[in-house]
UniProtKB/TrEMBL annotation:
Stretches assigned to the Protein kinase domain: 1-269
HEAT repeat extents: 344-382
Name this polypeptide is given: N-terminal kinase-like protein
Signal peptide range: none
Keyword field contains Transmembrane helix: no
Length: 711
């Protein structure tokens, strides 16, 4: 607001000129005019919300200083605005400096202070605006040396000189005198040669703003960096091809960590939301979206990102679904229970029946985070129904194992009736699973949830089940079984010696909160089982070491973690490819203890139609196998993993325990190493090729003299 009565005639003339220019000049890099009112007594001018550059730089200095990336994009914007005035509008700013630049909330630099803007050929009406130094004497130091003779050099010579003064002040602070421009100070080396061109003594050698911008954008230039490139792409994103947008969002995730926070919140985030809402960006926007979400407050997150996430869960795109499940830990704390139960969980449960094993696996893991927010019906009925079916009928052993692990982790959130009905039956069924890691998970599940069982249940139902595993083919399972048996027997002996402790044990059978002991066995016990068994002979030297803190007596000393926190310890298993087969990845750098859920394709272990009479019944077990496999079981044949999976690629092996016959593969020739097998194949191939050549030669017969060979 400008009061006419309080200003001089020159100031009033400049205020009216600025009001006129603000209304007529529109450019993304020029301060935007919103509204205004001109009366005889005052001028009212409304612009976008901005902060003076000097104030912004001071605030950034208190935080550690503005980064070169932010300054590079800011200078790019000011030079572009100056080029627009000089080359497109044929206007001269005449007042460029630190005071003429403003910064919006996204960190964008805007050119303002249009008080002295005039046509380069002079005003046709003959009106002359006063020079800045006549109104503000301190402005004289920003005038170029040829200022008294304004006809020397190009029209823009004075503009680019002031641009050089602006660059000096951005890096070094207020300019004390014109001669200080010779001292480079903190100006970056990549910018020095171009800066020297701006403040050169010869006005004819000073570059046009457009050429200066082009020179700085050359490879290795100060304005050639990922931040400027990203900003330029965002400005033109509406006209980019879908493939270009996909590639941009993929690369954006790696660059966001180095970008300014305000830029991410106010410029990148709206573009990400728009790309998902109106474009076909799909799952590729999720990673940068969650990265930007870290800069938001809880209220901003609820307002801007949660509605988009809820909408994403209803998508049928598998890539988006699995990315949402994998990154749920980043946004689960912002979801309220009503949204989880009514809008998210009904879509998530479809993953339990998906044909892609990777989606089923991630869906199981996501329950660790969703369980605390599920209502009574979804948690104790709907979820338990899906868990029962997965544990009974899923063809992937590691997924059945993970289901058992997840059940134990969410046990504290189940009501007492569900725990009594489900836990013992589920863990008992897991101990009969053909997959060794699942059997071990069942044993350790009993140990981790021992406080939920009464003395009678421990003696009559749990110990008989555990005793059968003391003769399990896998040594790790046997070791875990012995530990668990000792723990339960210790509790029974305690009650037998002192019956008064029965009430104390009974009262501890209904604990509240998250069981800290579960983390101990789930991470350090089962986590080392699956990966070992896939790669080594069962009961071999590498599979024989049980977890140290897997029992309930040691588990209390383990690090207490919530299911949400311990999700990071569930190592990502092999991802299913398009044909939905799994590959076992061997990462030597990753600790064995963190690779507990690598997936191994066991094929169809049971007929889904005939194998189980009721897959949702927790009391069913693995005895209901298909007829062919049941006959094999009657003959004493047990399904195990090959001792050399690299050679036989996971072929089923028959091991007759009753006859004590050594493990062998039905496909791999016995006694041959991998190298010998390859050599044999090459020899067979060579003989086959020689036979074909001899056959073709015999069919042609001898060539006659003078005959021409046609082939």
């Amino acid at each position: 607001m400008y009061e006419v009565a309080q200003g001089t005639d020159q100031q009033t003339q400049l205020a009216k000129a600025a009001f006129k220019r603000m209304k007529t000049l529109r450019h993304p890099n020029i301060l935007a005019y919103v509204d205004g009112l001109e009366t005889e007594k005052s001028l009212y001018l409304v612009t976008e919300q901005v902060t003076p550059l000097a104030t912004h730089l001071k605030a950034q200095a208190e935080k550690g200083g503005s980064g070169e990336l932010e300054v590079s994009w800011g200078l790019h914007q000011i030079v572009k605005a100056l080029s627009f005035l000089v080359n497109d509008c044929h206007l001269l700013h005449n007042n460029l400096g630190l005071w003429a630049v403003f910064v919006d909330r996204a960190g964008e630099w805007k050119l303002g202070a249009l008080d002295h803007v005039a046509p380069e050929q002079g005003d046709p009406s003959g009106a002359l605006l006063p020079a800045p130094k006549t109104v503000y004497p301190d402005m004289e130091k920003y005038d170029p040396p040829e200022m008294p003779n304004s006809n020397t050099g190009e029209k823009w010579a004075g503009e680019v000189w002031r641009m050089g003064c602006l660059i000096w002040e951005v890096f070094n602070g207020p300019l004390p005198r014109a001669s200080s421009l010779r001292s480079l100070g903190k100006i970056p080396k990549a910018l020095v040669p171009h800066y020297c061109e701006l403040v050169g003594a010869n006005p004819r050698a000073r570059p046009n703003p457009a050429r200066f911008l082009q020179n700085c954008r050359a490879p290795g230039g100060f304005l050639s960096n990922s931040f400027v490139e990203s900003n330029l792409f965002l400005e033109e994103i509406q006209i980019k091809e879908p493939a270009e947008k996909q590639q941009f969002f993929q690369d954006l995730s790696d660059n966001l960590d180095s970008f300014p926070e305000d830029f991410c919140k106010h410029k990148v985030l709206p573009q990400l939301l728009t790309a998902f809402e109106f474009g076909n960006a799909g799952a590729v926007v999720l990673t940068p979206l969650f990265k930007v979400g870290k800069f938001l407050s809880a209220e901003e997150y609820q307002q801007k990102i949660i509605p988009v996430i809820v909408k994403m869960f209803s998508s049928t795109d598998r890539a988006m679904r699995i990315r949402l499940l994998q990154q749920m830990e980043q946004f689960i704390q912002y979801l309220n229970e009503a949204a989880v139960n009514s809008q998210i969980f009904p879509h998530v449960v479809h993953g339990f029946t998906d044909t892609n094993p990777a989606i089923r696996e991630q869906t199981v893991k996501s329950m660790l985070l969703l369980a605390p927010k599920l209502n009574e019906t979804n948690l104790n009925q709907e979820l338990m129904r899906h868990f029962a079916r997965l544990q009974a009928r899923d063809e992937q052993g590691p997924i059945r194992c993970n289901t058992t692990v997840c059940l134990g982790k969410i046990a504290p959130y189940l009501n007492a009736g569900t725990r009594q009905r489900v836990l013992i039956s589920a863990f008992s069924r897991a101990t009969k699973d053909p997959f060794p890691a699942s059997r071990s998970a069942g044993v350790l599940g009993f140990a981790a949830t021992h406080n939920y069982y009464s003395v009678t249940e421990s003696a009559a139902r749990i110990l008989p089940t555990l005793c059968t595993l003391t003769v399990d083919p896998d040594k790790t399972v046997r070791d875990q079984a012995f530990k668990a048996i000792k723990s339960f027997l210790s509790k029974l002996e305690t009650v037998s010696e002192d019956p008064t402790k029965l009430a104390e044990i009974a009262s501890s059978a209904q604990p509240t909160g998250v069981s800290s002991s579960w983390t101990g066995w789930a991470v350090t016990g089962v986590s080392s089982l699956t990966s070992k068994l896939i790669r080594n002979t069962p009961g071999g030297p590498e599979a024989g070491g049980p977890a140290e803190n897997s029992g309930p007596d040691q588990a209390t000393s383990s690090e207490a973690k919530t299911p949400q926190a311990s999700l990071t310890h569930l190592a990502a298993s092999s991802r299913a490819n398009q044909s939905q087969t799994l590959e076992v990845a061997d990462n030597d750098d990753e600790p064995i203890g963190d690779r507990w859920d690598d997936e191994e394709d066991w094929g169809s272990l049971e007929d889904p139609e005939k194998g189980q009479t009721d897959p949702d019944d927790w009391n069913t077990d693995w005895s209901g196998m298909s007829s062919s496999k049941k006959k094999a079981s009657d003959r004493g044949v047990h399904i195990v993993i090959c001792a050399d999976p690299c050679r036989c690629r996971g072929h089923t092996l028959a091991f007759n325990w009753s006859l004590n016959i050594s493990c062998r593969c039905a496909v791999c020739p016995p006694g041959l190493s991998k190298a010998e097998l390859s050599k044999k194949k090459r020899e067979e191939r060579r003989k086959e090729l020689e036979a074909k050549r001899a056959e073709r030669k015999a069919a042609k017969g001898p060539l006659k003299l003078g005959a021409r060979k046609l082939d």
